[in-house]
Write a structure and sequence with these properties.
By secondary structure, the chain is mainly α. About 75% of the residues lie in helices and about 0% in strands.
Length: about 80
């Protein structure tokens, strides 16, 4: 389910956004949704960390390492301290 948001902006800005959106084959609502999603994503540290772990895990798997390898490496590093 979605909800509606009313935002007041300068008419010149609205026209520019509308023109850019139209050139991209989008409507203003799509552009605003994308901007708001990006705004929240860039400030949501939990999502950032989840994404970081996901990218790191993907790279580790591509290199042929498994979870046992990772546990072993972590234990080795902790023992060195």
């Amino acid at each position: 389910m979605t909800t509606q948001m009313i935002v007041r902006i300068d008419p010149t800005l609205k026209n520019k956004v509308s023109n850019f959106a139209k050139a991209e084959g989008k409507n203003v609502s799509e552009v605003v949704r994308e901007l708001l999603e990006s705004y929240v994503k860039n400030r949501d540290i939990g999502s950032y960390i989840d994404d970081l772990w996901s990218r790191t895990g993907t790279k580790i798997k591509k290199q042929g390492f498994g979870s046992d390898d990772i546990d072993s490496i972590i234990q080795k590093v902790r023992a060195e301290k």
